[in-house]
Backbone:
């Protein structure tokens, strides 16, 4: 699903109304009714429930009048507060204001601070003050209205976007509505899914108002929101006669002294994500530990640096032979940064042919000579967090944080890879210019080992997709496994949060929820 800026949405609206000939009034009616249905769900049935709707003088307020009209017809007790003079309301908003008047619905004007209600009594508040075109800062008596709404303790439903939130950035510079839910119109906006906007928007639902797909396509939008429906289609479907050899084989090169957990989490997550077989190539000194920690994953003891628990450069030939066994590989979790291991990774990746996921110390090794990525002919998925991306592209983290989408997209294009830029939210960029934003996950996932679980999920899906979609364009397979893997990883975090809470969950809790995440989908 496309993720849009406010200007892109304006263009789409304009083309729909002027080019296609769908009336703006019709679009407003559909938007308002769709939002009213969300309100109905929040109320658990609107009969005899009190709903207070705060409307601004623009089209967002017009949507609010439609919401109230439908809720009233369904049995709710509706009251409007209008933060503008009635005679200043124009266009389609004025038409819907007049419809509310015709139904004798109470409309109270708030034109100064003294007009702000001292107390709001309702089962639900609908915020229809400002829409996606809002910029700047809410001031004057409307600021007091927003503060009164936020401190009411009543569930809040925002129409299109929480008032005060900047649709293009997710930022706000003054008071902003903190919604319980947001019913956004036609397409989701960037601000709904980038912090702090995601927190202010609550759960976001998209209202289909009949905008033709051809109009959306004309806008040539390169930013996308990953949806549950899309991920469900990406997940590999096993045939009834499947066996382990047809479900994909994964080779993982991971682990060093003190970081065996990273290798274990990635390896087991790979199998829990559906891969048929997995083998972990790890320093010989650590092999016994790995075999004790894992039952289902095979291990391959590899040459060690003087029994230090770090992969030795002399093992390069053995690793290349080992890779021939699998459909794809994962390189990096817990590898450490011994100078021999760094050179090993650099030489391995420079001549790599098979699809691979590179993470953690695999990325740190490549950061020493990032030109290796341009030598590599293999399809790659790289999974850096902001610090690792900074080491790769030599841009300070403070600069990357200002425009994460741009830096992810630029890196993917320059190095011809699929980039999974981990964060809140995680962003996936591919060389063709399309970027995907993941909506799942929570702050409890900020824990050691979370990225190793992600690597395992992605490479496990990749192995299956390579087996089941032979002949399909490889770049599509890489993008799908990255997008589906990130979505599922976030979903495991959400499920773990429900069980353990944000403070208490660890990476192993997420790994244990992988099967449940697939069931949920």
Residues:
């Amino acid at each position: 699903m496309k993720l849009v800026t406010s200007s892109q949405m304006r263009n789409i609206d304009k083309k729909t109304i002027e080019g296609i000939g769908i009336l703006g009034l019709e679009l407003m009616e559909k938007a308002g009714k769709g939002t009213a249905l969300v309100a109905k769900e929040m109320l658990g049935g609107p009969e005899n429930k009190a709903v207070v709707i705060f409307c601004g003088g623009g089209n967002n307020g017009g949507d609010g009048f439609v919401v109230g009209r439908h809720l009233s017809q369904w049995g709710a007790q509706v009251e409007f507060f209008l933060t503008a003079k009635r005679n200043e309301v124009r266009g389609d908003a004025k038409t819907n204001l007049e419809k509310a008047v015709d139904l004798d619905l109470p409309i109270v004007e708030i034109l100064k601070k003294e007009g702000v209600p001292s107390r709001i009594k309702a089962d639900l508040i609908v915020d229809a003050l400002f829409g996606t075109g809002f910029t700047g800062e809410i001031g004057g008596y409307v600021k007091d209205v927003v503060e009164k709404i936020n401190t009411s303790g009543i569930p809040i439903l925002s129409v299109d976007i929480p008032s005060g939130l900047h649709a293009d950035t997710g930022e706000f510079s003054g008071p902003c509505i903190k919604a319980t839910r947001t019913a956004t119109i036609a397409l989701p906006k960037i601000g709904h899914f980038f912090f702090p906007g995601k927190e202010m928007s609550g759960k976001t639902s998209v209202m289909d108002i009949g905008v033709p797909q051809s109009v959306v396509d004309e806008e040539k939008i390169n930013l996308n929101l990953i949806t549950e429906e899309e991920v469900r289609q990406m997940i590999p479907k096993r045939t009834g006669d499947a066996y382990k050899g047809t479900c994909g084989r994964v080779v993982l090169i991971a682990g060093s002294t003190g970081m065996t957990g990273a290798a274990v989490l990635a390896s087991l997550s790979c199998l829990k994500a559906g891969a048929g077989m997995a083998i972990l190539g790890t320093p010989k000194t650590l092999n016994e530990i790995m075999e004790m920690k894992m039952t289902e994953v095979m291990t391959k003891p590899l040459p060690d640096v003087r029994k230090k628990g770090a992969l030795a450069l002399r093992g390069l030939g053995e690793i290349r032979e080992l890779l021939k066994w699998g459909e794809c590989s994962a390189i990096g979790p817990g590898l450490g940064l011994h100078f021999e291991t760094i050179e090993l990774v650099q030489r391995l990746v420079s001549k790599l042919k098979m699809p691979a996921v590179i993470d953690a110390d695999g990325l740190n090794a490549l950061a020493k000579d990032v030109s290796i990525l341009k030598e590599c002919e293999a399809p790659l998925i790289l999974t850096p967090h902001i610090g690792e991306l900074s080491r790769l592209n030599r841009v300070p983290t403070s600069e990357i944080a200002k425009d994460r989408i741009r830096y992810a997209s630029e890196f993917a294009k320059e190095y011809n890879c699929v980039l999974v830029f981990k964060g809140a939210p995680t962003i996936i960029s591919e060389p063709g210019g399309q970027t995907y934003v993941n909506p799942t996950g929570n702050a409890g996932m900020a824990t050691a080992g979370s990225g190793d679980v992600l690597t395992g999920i992605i490479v496990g899906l990749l192995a299956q997709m390579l087996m089941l979609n032979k002949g399909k364009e490889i770049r599509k397979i890489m993008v799908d496994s990255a997008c589906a893997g990130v979505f599922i990883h976030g979903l495991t975090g959400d499920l773990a949060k429900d069980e353990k809470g944000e403070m208490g969950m660890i990476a192993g809790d997420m790994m244990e929820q992988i099967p449940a995440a697939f069931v949920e989908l």
